[in-house]
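Quality-control log, excerpt.
Job 1 of 2 completed; input and output follow.
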Amino acid sequence: MKFQKLVLNNIGPYNGFNQFEFNPEGQKNTILIGGKNGSGKTIFLTSVRLALYGPLAYGYKTETVEYLNKVSALLNKEAKENFYIQLEFVMDENLKKRNYKILRSWYVAKSLVKESVDVFKDENHLNDVQKDDFFEYLRTTFPPSLLEICFFDGEDLSKLSNDDLLSSYLEDLSAKLFNLELFSTLEKDIETYISRSNKSGKEKKLEIEKNQLKEKLKKLKQQLEYCLSTLKHLNIEFEETKIQYNKTKQDFTTHGGLIFEERQQLSREIIQIENERKQLQDQIKEFISKYLPFFISYPMLKQLVTQLDDEENYFMANLLREKISNLSLEQLLREIHIELEPKIIHQFKNKLTKELSTHKEVPIIHNASKTESHQVKSLFIEINQKKLSSFIEMIKENKEKFQVLCNLKQRLKDNETTTEFNEMIQVMDQANKKMIELQSQMDKWMADKEKLEQEIEEISRKYDKVNNELYNIYKVKSSFQESKKILMVSRKFRENQLRKKLKDVEFFSTKMFKSLLRKDSFFSRIMIDHRTFSITLLDEHQQEINKSSLSAGEKELLVLSIIWGMIKASKKQLPFVLDTLLGRLDNEHKHSVITKLVPNFGHEVIVLSTDSEIDEKLYKDLIPYISNEYTLHYDISNKKTFIETHFFNYGRERTVQ
């Protein structure tokens, strides 16, 4: 990828139309952009990210509210419309160079920011499907993580002088530059697959669980068989007892029909009265538990209702007073064409307040909600003399029915003792009691049967599940072995590729570091461990050099040399942005970086610098490699950044085409 042009229209401090042209060509691979702190260099970098990736530039997958809020903060506050970033660049696609233009624009509607994106390929506007395909291709061939590699910040580079940080950075950098991330991801997926299937001896655990479930199923089925057998015997005994009862009842009916009918009638009356008494007793219990306490404390309940009414009136009066106070009577009267003096209006307002919101001062005790107040008042309405009278009537009626019930039971008892068929009656009673007992036993065993059937069904499901899991484990065991082989081959291939690439990195880094240092015979070789990415410096006698003996500037040159070596070994053609790169270097080392490193950093290098970093002498050293130069000048009074087509006062003003 090679950047051609960046246009910022009402973005950050870039008010109106602002344009950067890059056009690197051959030896002139450098675009020099100068500016003091706060002049807009950070917005420049952010705009490149935003133009290419939109929400992905901020870590969002889609246009979320948070993303649009960040964009809104980026838009120029003085402008009202026409916000956009336009980035033009060249990409290699199917061995052909293609010219692309991304136009990402925003407009504000009802305080909400809306985004639209247009993409042009060789001046042809892409439709929505083609646009989606392009961004997918861009994300895979030039992802945001790769773009971040292209942006070098001097402050971040100085931190990499720490060995641990540098090793970690180089490991990450090598994965992205040498296309090894795919293998790392594949290996992690295979490891997850294998570990998920063999975790903690899962197969053995499942086999134990399967045997336990099988044994439990066997016991439950034995219990169910016993339960069914018992139910069968109880049912036979119940039917035999029922036959005996019906035969005795038939004989009794045949020989003592009148007496029997009388007994049946008495029994029916007893059952009916007992049912009526049960309903009355339930009503009495409900009254005692629900209403009786409030009848006992009726004065307190009445006082509570009065207090709630007073509080409600008090709140209503305050609300009316506030409404009247805020009422614009003057405007209201004018609308109906009535003109009154302000004094009369004020008097009328006071009179209205007095008439509508008169109230007494009430201490707020309960501060109840409308629902709570309504419930209390509804209860108070129910607590009346009529309710109490109905309760007394229920007690009286229950007492009367109890007396009638006692008389009926006594008559039934007298009937039994006087009848000559007493023996038949006793046989029927015994049979009836036995049937009731047998029915109770059958109900209990039936409940046990249903419970056992549910347990058997549940255990069977668990057994089937475990059995299926074991089957799948047995089924894919062979695939685990193949996966392990693939994992081993991938690791070996990645390790070999990395070792080869790092050999190239060592060669290029050593060559660059030697050219940047002023100590010609200080060292002979840089070595990089392909497992730990630790850096070792060797002197001309192949003895290790203590890196702590390097100055801060030399450590930074070492980091730059290794990063350059990584990029050189990767053979990737990428645009690079170097931001405040020379801050910690002395003039001699700055000269080396400007004349040796920057020209060889890539086919396109954008250098962001302050005037204290690149002075007039260094600027002259860099001139042979500059294709375009700019200075960002921030006007504090207008809060606007102006782009001047020269580097501070060293360069000569140009006209941007």
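Job 2 of 2 completed; input and output follow.
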Amino acid sequence: MAFASGARHSGLGRQPVWLLLLLLLFSGAMVTRLAWLQLLHGAENRQRADENRIRLMPRNPIRGRLLDRHGRVLATSRLTYNLYVQPREVSDEAWPALRDRLAALLELPANQLEEQRRSGANSEGFRVQLAENLKPDQVLRFRERSSELSGAEVDVDVLRSYPHGRLGAHVLGYTSGITEEEYQRLRDQGYRIRDRVGRSGLEKVFEAHLRGEWGGQQVEVNAAGQVQRVLGEKPARAGKDLRLTLDLPLQQAAEKALDGVAKGAIVAMDPNTGAIRAMASRPSFDPNIFSPAPSIPQWAALNSPEAPLLNRTLQGFPPASTFKIVTSLAALESERYHPGSTELTTASYCRAGLCYRDHVSMGQLGFPMALALSSNSFFYRAGINIGGDALFHTARQLGFGQRTGVELRDEESKGLLGDKAWKKEVLGEPWTDVDTITASIGQGAVLVTPLQMARMYAAVANGGWLVTPHLVEREPQRQWIGFQPDTIATVRKGLRLAVEQGTARALNQSNLPPAAGKTGTAEDPPRPVHAWFGGYAPAEDADLVVVAFGENTGGFGGTVAVPMAQALLTAWFANVRVAAPVQPVPAPLN
């Protein structure tokens, strides 16, 4: 009994030791954990705590507006309210209940909300847009019940707006939401996942000028997500407005003039400065459908074979008889011809075993009348006599085969001057007289853009200066080509005769000042022919060049393209040309 009693006494004696060891063990674990949390990961945990307590509410910058030359608005911004969900705050288990509450409250299809959440999921945890363009009553209902909709939010967004719809769409361009790949590349430049970026036209070229800078408000919230106080604020900086050279009424006239063709283009330009007053392409599109995004049928239409997104004013086409101006200038600047020279015109012209027909057979003609009547045989002979090298040299002097310098550089084709070097390199064949013959009337391996064509007519109209076309107001740039004055005078006489008694007689109207110009009908086998007209007015002191083009219309330049040019010149001289006072620019959206 004594032994047993002693054993119990010994066990009791050791109990405080075990308790002390256990206490020290738990205390050590707690100290270690505290050191881990506060010393090793203190900064990280403080940041997480702040994230739970402090919210950054970003504020969109207002994108700069696009204005016409008199301050009339061509592109601006509008506010819209969108519904979002924060993925980090709504688990997969909690989502169905939130989805159904939102669907019932805002009268939105639950399956649509489900699809939007699924398609918008991202690895970064950015909020997902569930619905867009909410109505005022939907926004009000959400605000009243927001405390019951944790993880969902309604926020304002800024979308691009084009008040004139399709007008000038290819020039203005459009914007769309930034992609995740773009965001990763551009976020160091201040872009956010909710940003919209310029995709084409001037919206793309002047993205940095127009976009502005994000702002935001830092606020403290409680456990329910309610704002307690504002900790700091950085106002968003609006983008800068951009004043264009376009004239809204003339642009409207250009768009209407193109209604008569399925595909085509019009350019109107100041021949002395290169300022583009109108630039239109058909078929066109409404850039508003990209705000916020086109539907599946709309996207399919945009990518149809008709290519409505393609700016045809900057694409190359065979110029046909409008190119005879180049042949005339090259011949008159050569030692072979002078302003009083004549050349034979015949019903056919044969060379190298081939014969070419001509609708003009009037014997000897000078350059002015040959241009007015558009004699092919005259220019076949002139081209052969001066040679292909002289012809293409003059074409390059006039800006063909190169970009014009217009701001839409990435969308502009250089066209094609298929000279000897090109044919040898691309086709592996030597140059022949047939190549010279076809090139002298603007066929064969020759492609020019309507804007390049306008640049050539401007050089004739202004006395021999090659201007740089531009869409944004800036100091004009031009260079002297070096043609002799009597060379220019001879060609100008021919272009005036074309309107007075030649292929462009339809432009000889009493309500217009004397005009000058040249028609063209370009072959494009196996498709129908193209229709061209280029010209300017007034003939002696031009202030507007117009180039009209109808793609594969099957009609002649005089019957298809001249009426389009006439519509623009009528609008210009009836209303637009009068110096309009600069309109007070409306205040931007706040």
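Post-run check on job 2. Residues 1-5, 579-590 have pLDDT under 50 and may be disordered.
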